[in-house]
Every structure is written in structure tokens, then in C-alpha cells.
What does this fold into?
Amino acid sequence: MDCAGISRRLSTSVHNPVAVRSSLVRQLLPTPLDAVDPLTLYPFDHRPRPAGRPWLMVNMVASVDGAIAIDGVSGGLGGDGDSMAFRAIRASCDWIVAAAGTVRAERYRIPRATEETAAVRVAAGRSEAPRLAVVSASVDLDPELPLFVDQRDGEARPLVITGANPPADRMHALEGRAEWHHTDTERPTAESVLAALGERGADVVLAEGGPTFNGQLVDSGLIDELCLSISPHLVGGGSSRIVNGSEATIPTDLRLDRLLEHDNALFARYVRA
It folds into this structure.
């Protein structure tokens, strides 16, 4: 399923604002260190803004044999280390973007920072919490989803990025609960999504899937950074990969910038070579 890559991470780092931190993680590369805190690393990584657009991060979790789900969900793939890395990665961006299928299945909420992550974000020159954008040509979004219902006074509404002619009745159902951006095409493209967020001041955008949306990002050639959590499980079966539906014929070369380890799970940060 398109959205299976983050359910464990959302349940720990978003629905429960107190992240589980049983111990610090080890850094294996570039310099071996016995104990590091991901929250002191990811938000301060160098991410130079490419010409004309924000820096694009992608964050996913997979088993060692490439599966992104166990029994249709990612809960069995995550762990304490993944939750720590996930929280730190979210603290590194200005906007989070996800496809509607991911938002529906994972029951996204408006991103809210803890006191600790807010302080880190401000120290790194960002706002206290990232904004959330949802990509959907059909606007197939239930108005009762948590991100539309659990909204606080003065809090920024989620941005729905849709096409030129979305269904009017579905837009009406979200009146007052969302902001809107219409692309010039019938379906939003990766380029138009990044352009919309860049117009709203984004320097760093974090994409959280699902795999079909990731495939569009691969095809666009716009991915600057991949944060991949590798879970110590052999899953087998027919689970999706972190990228589905890509038509790219030329691989995107990446360079391993950092590798962390916690309880046999690996957390790799790759950047464009």
C-alpha cells in the first residue's frame, strides 16, 4: 500500500508528542562515535537551496530485503531508533508534503513541535513547527480526518495542492479547514508541488510518500536527499518498495553522507552525488 512507510513513526513521534528515547544511537560513518543524538545532527546538516526551488528530502523505512510493510503496515519495521531519527528529520524541514493516500491511511495530524524540537528548529533558523501540504488531484479527503478536525486557534491550516479543476463539492466540504493551491495542470506534478512550496518560503521540503508519489519525485530528478531507515527484518512477501511506478531510465546517483545504528537498525542519510 502506498502509505505503509510511516505508520509506526507517526504513532510514536506525532500522536504521542513525548518521543521514546531509550538510549542514544551510534554513529558508524563518517566518524565513528559511541553516542549521538539525531536531534543534534539532522536539523543542522548543510542543505544549500538549489537554483529556483527548495531542497527536497525523502524519508522512508524499509526492511533489509526492501519491504516497506509487515501485514500492510510499517509498525513492525519501526523501533525506538527510527522514532528518534524520524523526529529529527521532521525537525529539519520547513514543509512536510505527502500524497492523499498516505494522509488518509496514516490519519495525519497537523505537525506540532515539542518544547525540545521547537528549540532545535529555532536554533537552526526555522519556525517552531513545520507546515503540512497534501497533494491530491481528486481532493479525496475526509473532512473528519484529524488534520482537519484537530485544529487550534491561530494554527496554520494544511495546504491542499490540487489540479486546475478539482471537484467543487469536495473543496466545499473542507471550507475553512484548509488552504488551497491550484496548479495549471489537471494533476499536480512534482515540479509544481515544489514550486508552490517555494513560493511560500520553503527552503527545505520533506516528502513522506507514499511510494507512488516517490516514483514521481524520482522521475522528476529533484530528490536531493534520501533518509532511509533499514529495519533488521527479512519480510518476504509482495510488499511495495520505497519507490513504485517510476519510469526513470537513468539512475540518480547518491552519496552516503552519514550512517547511524540503534538496536541493529541502520539510519542512512544519502545526498545527491
Summary: The two ends are 30 Å apart (CA to CA). The chain has one domain: 7-272. The first strand starts at residue 25 and ends at 29. Residues 5 and 184 are 30 Å apart (CA to CA).
